[in-house]
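Narrative of activities, Objective 1.

The group set out to show that a structural description can be obtained from nothing but a protein's sequence at a throughput compatible with the screening campaign. Below is one input-output pair from the validation batch, recorded exactly as produced.
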Amino acid sequence: MKALKASVALMFALAFAVACSPSASQLKKTLESNPDILTNVIEKHPDKVMEALQNAARNAQQTARDREMKEEETRREEEFKNPKVAEIPDNRATRGPKDAPIVLVEYSDFQCPFCSRGFRTVEEVMSKYKGKIRFVYKHLPLDFHPLAEPAAKRFEAIALQDPEKAYKFHDEVFTNQEKLKDQGEKFLDAAAKKAGADLAKMKQDMESDEVKKRIEADMAEAKKFGFSGTPGFLVAGVSLRGAYPKEEFEKIIDRVLKDKGVQ
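Output recorded for this entry:
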């Protein structure tokens, strides 16, 4: 009842604000002096009160969504004008032509279920725009995913051997992510072996300064670009935060390709 009274009080406050704009202190004083106002309204019209509260909540949620969409549109337009540029050293493992018109960078976590969804989306996008995208997988292992960093270390250690094998490992882990949860690092080693990696060398390189620096650099870059959760993407320098559907990637890619005159 207290929570309901508080909600009704808020409704009264909104109503007064629209109708005659009394001060907040006046309204508070009135309701505190006459609490029966709220009780009588609730008892006499409980259904109407609840309906009004639900409508108010829905309206507030829609307003918040509309505001977020507008802010997102504004941010995206700014990034089309001033795209974010990720560092891609020549020795980093990538997929697709190095001179592709679109660079797609993902900041990801091998243990994150949303990143598994992002993995499938990237596959679809790469297939649709075959030859037009250069894909770079970067690391943002989250603290509450204890297997994310060991997986990231293996990916980069394998990449030192052969970038193609690193992406075979990447595909195997995301395709069978439930095995990662059930089998832990045993599954990661099996995935590395299936990808054709030299396991002894991988284990040695996993703890190397080179691998450590790559992961740390990826995490720092993700933070610089405002990515705190996973997955995060830069699509031709335009950021997408979360496991967006492929249609959102296509909107950005199609616009950039058109601007560049690429068919």
